Structures are given as structure tokens and as C-alpha cells.
Amino acid sequence: QVQLVESGGGLVQAGGSLRLSCAASGRTFSSYYMGWFRQAPGKEREFVAAIRWSTRYYADSVKGRFTISRDNAKTTVYLSMNSLNAEDTAVYYCAAGSSRWDGPYNYWGQGTQVTVSS
For residues 49 and 69, what is the distance between their CA atoms, to the nearest angstrom? Predict the structure, then answer.
């Protein structure tokens, strides 16, 4: 069982930056794919980024602006977001899975709201 708790969301102006954190419980954290997803109002949840060991995966919409990283000692995964725009407004979810970077993900956090004002 893995429990995930996100933090770091908030309100930011367009062009600004935020860093999301996801604290995970569980002794096998280092072997999991850790992913970030987001869901904007009225839209489907979409993949943002994932990481396993040192390999990273990104959605085209965030490449060059977002960076996913992890600290296995702290069992925490981060999402650093730069050059934010209104289209990045969404609830961001952390997820953990053992299969593939594109899913399925077995464990999910409760989400953290990111709002970008233009």
C-alpha cells in the first residue's frame, strides 16, 4: 500500500513558478513509477510527467517548462513548474504505479489546486 499527499499548490500569476511536492509512504517507493497528472474544470484528467529511477517522461504541453524529480531518501517526488500560463490551471494529482510510465497507476493522492491568473 502506498499513500500519497500532495502540497505546494496555490495561486500564481502568469509567467510565475510553483513547486509541487508529493510525500509518499511505503518501503518500495524507489521502484515505483511516480507520475503527475492534472484535471482542469470540464476536462479529462491528463498526464503531465513521470519518473522512475532517473528516467523522466513529459507531456508535450509542459516540456521545457516543468521538471519532475524525486528524492528517494525523503520518499518525495516534486514537480517544478515554470512559465505558468492560464492553461496550466488545474487540480494536480500525484500517482504511483509499478507497470509503465503511462499507467496504469495504482495509487493516487487527493490533489492540489494550481490556479494561474492572467
Answer: 10
pLDDT in tens, 32-47: 999 999 999 999 999 9
β-bridge partners, 107:
96
d(CA 102, CA 89): 22
* φ/ψ (deg, to 5) at 61: -70, -15
Q: Quick check: 96 and 24 in contact, CB under 8 A? A: yes
Question: Are the C-beta atoms of 80 and 59 separated by less than 8 Å?
Answer: no
Task: Please tell me whether residue 83 adopts helix, strand or coil conformation.
Answer: coil
- The tens digit of pLDDT for each residue in 84-99 reads 999 999 999 999 998 8
In a 3-state reduction of DSSP, which class is residue 1? coil
User: Cβ neighbours of residue 100 under 8 Å, at least 6 residues apart?
Assistant: 33
Cell numbers 500564481 correspond to 12
E strand spans, 9-65: 10-13, 18-24, 33-39, 46-52, 55-58
How far is residue 64 CA from its own chain's centroid? Answer: 15
